[in-house]
Amino acid sequence: MLKPIGTSNFWSSSEDSGQGKSVIKSNDTFLNIKATWKLQETFVNRAHEGKTQRCYHDRRRVRSCLHLIDRVGVVPPSRVFVNRSLAMEKIKCFGFDMDYTLAVYKSPEYESLGFDLTVERLVSIGYPQELLNFVYDPSFPTRGLVFDTLYGNLLKVDTYGNILVCVHGFNFLRGPEIREMYPNKFIQRGDTERFYILNTLFNLPETYLFACLVDFFSNCSRYTSCETGFKDGDLFMSYKSMFQDVRDGVDWVHFKGSLKEKTVENLEKYVVKDPKLPLLLSRMKEVAKVFLATNSDYKYTEKIMTYLFDFAHGPKPGMPHRPWQSYFDLILVDARKPVFFAEGTVLRQVDTTTGRLKIGTYTGPLQHGIVYSGGSSDIVCDLMGIKGKDIIYIGDHIFGDILKSKKRQGWRTFLVIPELAQELHVWTDKSSIFEELQSLDCFLAELYKHLDSSSNERPDISSLQRRIKKITHDMDMCYGMMGSLFRSGSRQTLFASQVMRYADLYAASFINLLYYPFSYLFRAAHVLMPHESTVEHAHVSFIDTESPLISEEQIYLLVVSCCDAAAVTAATVSVQV
């Protein structure tokens, strides 16, 4: 079985490595390295011939070379990506959320269920019967959008509040239309009374529902559209009241409605069951403590977790079956995150036979097998005898799980982003689109290369700008109607900036940790500022990857250094998973 090794992400075969040395067994890997060395040899020959022509092709060749080197690593969807370096051997405790982390809900089946139940709730409180004809479309919504409760628009913004995409119903607005409502194409993200960020996977159904409702009322002859809502005779419904009705409907479905009931009635339809889950948690419990902190109630948690660990065997075939509680040192339900990471709530004990809470506050020591309700992050540290930096908390909620645990407690964080698998597929499968966009950026820079402040010449870049706009749109459409979760063209989204700021590690699934040893050092890449990434060192060959002008000597030296580093890593590092 092939497994990732070292920081270069080479692949090795643990069955054939022998003597503790890594042996590269993949034919693709060998061919890629061979191609890289062949390219290096070409650069050597051309450098000796004195050919130092500068051109775009050199830049594209070096990027292709680096792409070949990178391809010898672990398959991207199975990787863990690093924002801040983290030494796994220093982690003394693994904490987990349940929903969309341990329990991965099947998409779009689960979102469709939540969407349908919310629509039924709206109709029951007086909304038109026609809403029952709505059908959830998973290709439209993406996480991280902002709903403007004043104008009823869905906005995709960057970290500073600049508007990247604006949609009214299903009508994508153009620049002039956007500026009529947002003169600077900018919003104040801090205005939480007006702008609501739809950051979670649970928000996907309501994101699509907002668009459906705005589109319905805009096109229904019974209603007259206004700037901030709709009129039906003497009745006026603002976008803000519509927003509040949807939010109340979603909360009702989750806490009082039949969403959980219908989920547990058909777990195979709505919940992913992964046999690697008990294996990974058993390995974690061998090297550290493990706890569960979920906002779900005990009865629902019990049914979901029992299903997830319902295998005929234990962590491995041949081992006896174990109840799900045995994989955790501490179990907390009704955690009420993000309040859990601040003042928290009263810690109480759950009667697991009835599902009810026992009277009084629990003040005793940690007891294995007992399920607790409420509590706080401070109580977790006290019960388990650990500090904040000793904990890595794994969850899917950028605000409730990651941001608050990082800012208030200093916990290390691992963000689960299920959409990452699709994002990586598009990123690799549509690489030609990204390369063309980069080439256009280079060509734009070339037009101004010989101009300075004394120049009266104004290059005509209108056609180039139109081409860049079209390529950006084509690239966005590869991901879905609202584009990528992480970017629009070359600009990062608000969600992407939050991931980079608050998540130490992130991956499509925390199961990816199975492919790394618990002594692994997740090393963050160096993040360079523009003055560092675009300016060469005086005596060190450093390639300016933003410049279209690169000499072949620079390419050669970069390739040599990359190949040498890769070869050294492949020859010395071995991982037994």
From TrEMBL:
GMP binds at D99. It catalyses: GMP + H2O = guanosine + phosphate; inosine + UMP = uridine + IMP; a ribonucleoside 5'-phosphate + H2O = a ribonucleoside + phosphate; XMP + H2O = xanthosine + phosphate. GO terms for molecular function: 5'-nucleotidase activity; ATP binding; metal ion binding; nucleoside phosphotransferase activity. GO terms for biological process: GMP metabolic process. The keyword Ribosomal protein does not apply. CDD domains: HAD_cN-II. Its cofactor is Mg(2+). InterPro entries: HAD-like_sf, HAD-SF_hydro_IG_5-nucl, HAD_sf, Pur_nucleotidase. Mg(2+) binds at D97, D396. Keywords: Allosteric enzyme, ATP-binding, Cytoplasm, Hydrolase, Magnesium, Metal-binding, Nucleotide metabolism, Nucleotide-binding, Transferase. One of its GO terms (cellular component) is cytosol. It is found in: Cytoplasm, Cytosol. The active site is at D97, D99. Its main location: cytoplasm. It comes from the Eukaryota. Its EC number is 2.7.1.77, 3.1.3.5, 3.1.3.99. Belongs to the 5'(3')-deoxyribonucleotidase family. Homotetramer. Broad specificity cytosolic 5'-nucleotidase that catalyzes the dephosphorylation of 6-hydroxypurine nucleoside 5'-monophosphates. In addition, possesses a phosphotransferase activity by which it can transfer a phosphate from a donor nucleoside monophosphate to an acceptor nucleoside, preferably inosine, deoxyinosine and guanosine. Has the highest activities for IMP and GMP followed by dIMP, dGMP and XMP. Could also catalyze the transfer of phosphates from pyrimidine monophosphates but with lower efficiency. This is Cytosolic purine 5'-nucleotidase.
